[in-house]
Amino acid sequence: MKPTAETLRQRLLTRARLRHWLGFARVAELGSVRKAAEAIGIAQPALTGLLADLESLIGAPLFERHARGMHLTAMGRELLPTARRVLGAIDDVAQQAAALQSQAQHVVRVGAIGAAIGGLLTPALPALALRHPDLLIQLVEADAPQLDQLVAQDEIDVALCRSPARVPQGWNFEPLLSDRFVVVAGRAHPLGKRRRLTVQQLRSYSWLAMPNGSAARKMFDELFADNVMPPMCQVSSRIPTVLWAMLRAQPLLALIPASVVRPLIVAGELTELHFDRSLEMDPIGALCRQGDDRAGVVLLMHALKGIQTVR
Questions:
Q1: Who is most buried in 78, 91, 229, 246, counting CB within 10 A?
Q2: Is residue 268 very low, low, confident or very high in pLDDT (cuts 50, 70, 90)?
């Protein structure tokens, strides 16, 4: 009979140790018990015993043993991200405790979408850190569903995101930054020197593909709804460095939030193409607990409110 979730929970709470998860994660990363034992600083037989204990607690094998090393089973692959989150939480606790004992007097846990990092935190944090060296900001980048989970699990104090469809009970959303989509290209793009473009001209060049279901893809489809779609470069990614590399290497166009791309436009790395249509987006703001007047949260919010609207 397979154990229930509650049975497994009780086993892990009462018998599992952090070393079990550490050993599991290191063996998964290095593919070798010997290498993992050396990295952790324990004897190889001890690590072998830890893995056996953890597999016994879970009731399923986590690795397939081969002459050339250790390979994760399907169960192991599913559990590895969770093990990493457990170890990451310990890292956060250690960092926070050390900071509070040394210099930092206030700690704020912040989760932010990429647009909020580029539009709000990048311009605000350098000056904030200089003015308040006793303030520790623990930042994690996450998409909207991940932020919802972090808020629900009380793992962050401030979520920087777009206006949510539903504000969680006990929280408030405050808009801080208006935003819009912009069409961008590399500096050498043939359209870069045109002052004002038409949709027809934009349709004549290849575009970077946008992930299905994204706000950018929805706006792109609306932009060309009444006309033939332009050719697409079949590279679809939300990772900024990939997008920038593609735009610099090829004469491509991309539809990206101004909050994300503004620093590269200002630095001259990318060019914004102007045309006679407004592509407004939901504003970016801060989701905070109602009545949270802790000094760290107040200082962060004051700095974020000083950021000018993206244009």
A1: 246
A2: confident
